[in-house]
Amino acid sequence: MIDSLIKDPAIKQVLNFLVLTLSVSAYYSLFKYSRKILSLFIEPTEQLTDKEQLRLDRLLESGKRFHNSSFILAGVLLALSSLSGFDKFAAPFGDIVFPKLQAAIGLFILCIISLVVSDRYFLMAYPWMKIDNRRPPFDWIAMGLHFEKSLFSGFIFYLPLPIASIGATIILATDASLSNIANFSVLSMTGFGLLYLPRTIYYWNHLIEVREDHRGGAVTLSVYLLYWYRMLRQILYSIYIILPIVIAVPQWQSSQFATTVLYLTFAFGIAYIVRMIFSMRFIYRNIDKLGLKFGFPIASRHYK
Hints:
Elements lengths: L1 H6 L1 H25 L16 H32 L6 E3 L6 E3 H30 L21 H8 L1 H13 L11 H27 L10 H21 L1 H6 L6 H24 L2 H10 L14
Antiparallel strand pairs: 1-2
Helix pairs in contact: 2-7, 2-8, 3-4, 3-6, 4-6, 4-7, 6-7, 7-8, 8-10
C-alpha cells in the first residue's frame, strides 16, 4: 500500500512539496543555531600555564591535520573528475574497488567528515586562543593573522567543501539519471548542512545537560522539553539534508528509504501539532508546576 501511495503522481507531488518545506526548515534552524554555539563559551581570564599551552597546541595541531586531510580529499575528487576514462576507483587499502559514483560520494562524505572534526577541534581551542600571549601565529593558514574576524580565515577553512562539490558535480553529471542533483549549489548546501549539524546538536544538548535557558538562567520543565524536541527534530531533519547523497547511490535508492521519508514526514506533522498544543499557556504552566518535583523552577524571567 505504501509503495502504491509513493508511486501515485498526486501523492508524490504532495510529498515533494513537504520534503522541500522540511528541508528549508532544516537549513533555517541549522544556520540559525549553529552560530550560537559561540555564546556557550566561558571567557577565560587567567594566563595559560606551560602545560595548558601545550594542550592548546595539540588541539590546533589535530584540527590542522584534519583540515589538511579535507583539502587532500577534495583535491583527489577534483582530479578524478578531470579523467575522461574514469570508471572505477581502487581504495589504497585492501582490494576494494568502488564504481565512480560511489567513489565520488564517498570522497565527498569523507571531506565533510574531516571538516567536521577539524571544526570541532578549533571550537575546543577557540576561547583559549584569545588569552594565548605568544606572538608568533600558529602554523595553520586557515586561522590567518586575525582568526576572530578575518574573512580570509573563514574562506580558507571552508574552501575544501566547494572544491569537493565541483569535483562531485562533474562526476555525477555523467549519469543522466542524476541530473537533478548533479548541481554545484545542491551539493554545496548538502555539505554545509552536514557540516553545521553537529554544532546545532551540541548547542541544544548543552542546554539540556546544564538545564539552562538559552537567554541565561534556570530553565523550566516546559522549556526543557522544548529543547529536547528541537534537538531530536534537528537529528531527524538530517534525513532531508542527505537526500541528494542518498539519491546518488544506486544501492540506497530503495522503496524502503522512500517509505522511511514518508513515515518521518507524517511524524513531523504529528510532532508539530503536539508541540503547538503544549505551547498553550494553561498547558505549559501546568507542566512547569509539575517540574517542581524534578528540581525545575516554576517560572522563568524570560517566559511568564
